[in-house]
Amino acid sequence: MERIEVNELAKTGLFQGNPIDGGVVETNISWVILSKLFAFKIKRPVKLSFLDYSDLQKRKQNCERELVLNSRYSSIYLEVLPIRYFENSWVIGEGQGKIKDYAVCMKKLRNSKKMDEMLKKDLVQYSDIRNLATVLANFHKKAEKVRKPFDLGQAKNTFNDLESVRKFVQEECGVQTAQKIDSSIVWSNDFLEKHLQRFEKRAADGWARDLHGDLHSGNIFLYKDPIIFDCIEFNDSFRQIDLLYEIGFLCMDLENFGRADLSEEFLSFYSKSLNCFEENEDMELFKYFKALRANVRAKVYFLNAQSDIDPISKNKHLEMAKSYLYQLFDYQS
């Protein structure tokens, strides 16, 4: 589907015989239609270096995979449904007409309970963090172990891809900001080589598991029983990671919001249920993984700024990118 068709579906389409009458939220790789009771996630027809949604069958398969993977820990995922067009009308679900695409149907949750929104309003309590730590630890304990050798070259490339935005960063933010990228890459290469044996040992010991892969506050709802959603389905290697890398993302995110206290509370309570720090050296690895997550977030926001034609929006992306880049630099001390 194209953007204009998704907007038509949201405004005029039907689901279970009722008007959808929803709004559309767009990300880099999907559209989400939010109706009164349901959310419908539709994959954009894109092909990138790390995912392929370029044809209808691939989008269907990824929808089905998203349903299965997220159902491991979330009850909001309901089913994968066809999107049909018949006699100038849009319908989600079974019926007449050509299948134009597929949608993952979910229960709609309250935006006010989304963790990132609650953090902005200083509404997240220690009790919320403890509940979340318990839910995550229970999921992680059951997650399938992935025993694949640690790949030093791949690890270096993952971090060093930040260099791809260096020219843009220098043009927009100045030489000093761009030089933070240079020194960070040198630091990362040295760190990976120095701690190579420990990375290899953790991989051999089964600390890499089939997890969520994108565990930040925007993918969590803080009800009494926390709800996690939107794991990575399109690339197994992004999801099959060390536990330290998984929880490092959430801790880094909390620290970016200025809530190091919540990060510490999460780590402390999580570790009581599942201690993934076997050696003292593991705390250094954890810090590295937080830096890597800050690296990836900085790159994403710089790329968003690079492609944004609206000056106000571009500025917001640049400010977010710089906050993550400076955070990455702080982790190196």
TrEMBL record:
Xref: InterPro entries: Cell-binding_unc_protein, Kinase-like_dom_sf
SUPFAM superfamilies xref list: Protein kinase-like (PK-like)
Protein name listed in UniProt: Aminoglycoside phosphotransferase domain-containing protein
Organism: Shivajiella indica
